Amino acid sequence: MAQLSCVAREEIMNIRITRRIALAIAAASLCAAPAGAVAQGWPSRPVTVILPFAAGGGTDLLARALAQDLGERLGQQFVVDNRAGAGGNIGAGAVAKAAPDGYTIMFGTPGPLANNKLMYKSLPFDPEQAFIPIVLIAKSPVIIAAKMSLPVNDIKELAAYAKANPGKLNVGVPGNGTLGHITALLLQKELGINMTTVPYRGTALVVNDLLGGQVDLAMDFMPSYVPLVREGKIRALGVTSAQRSSDLPDVKTVQDAGFKGFEATAWFALAAPAGTPKEIVDKLNAATNAFLQSPKGKEVLATLSMQAIGGSPADLKAFITSELQKWGPVVKEANISM
């Protein structure tokens, strides 16, 4: 009996070992599952969309409208998580460190996806390496606005006036290193003029001093200025997009004024941590393009003074490269450092 008991114990141990081996093989199989198999079931739980700026404003409104639409199209909730700070670098850094599984993506802007690389001395990530592009969602032009007492009506007249009055004009921008700031520098270079740049802490202060005549010009995002132009309180000299704005269709672009190829816009894009499966990127790309082409998407963008773009991940990658090539020399020449 004692001998049989030993045999029984040995058999039980063998069974346990066999089960452990089977479980290990099953676990290894799951870990080794191809990305395509994982992506086929995506999304199976809520997706976090990190917006590296505070809630409120046009960027936040667009991010939330898109997130809601993506949730409806893809069958899972897309939750916008605002993580502001350091010009967008805090939120972008969180995305760069996230698992590349499609459950953390970024609603990005020029700073964290491109230009901060040119300005910040110690950026904890390289946006070209840390993120995989998904889709370029929209662009928003910068407006070139003037106080009513300035005797110019368009970009050509501005160039002539600045050359006839060297060093007398100043231009308000919503902060050092902002798109308004570097656009002002690029425009001066293009027109062959010099103006004094006055950086403020935000748009509201720029608008206030433009209305009060403390600054001659402002270069900033359009929404806060459009009502004032329509009311005749300030004058719009031009917009910096390649096409005219539907909000101010009579206002010429800088290109219309004869400066071919000039474009400087805010832009909004989706990106994911590097290594995110192509199948997931393609699903997000297709769903976002569908949103942009829908009546709902068109209405949201029109309300926010934005122009729908869309396209492929490769289109966004090429666009980011062109932005870095355009702004790199401007930032370097102006010695902008954050």
Automatic annotation (TrEMBL):
CDD domains: PBP2_Bug_TTT. Keywords: Signal. Coiled coil: none annotated. Pfam families: TctC. Residues 1-37 form the signal peptide. InterPro entries: BUG, Bug_dom1. The keyword Signal applies. Gene3D superfamilies: Bordetella uptake gene, domain 1 (3.40.190.150), Periplasmic binding protein-like II (3.40.190.10). Belongs to the UPF0065 (bug) family. This is ABC transporter substrate-binding protein.
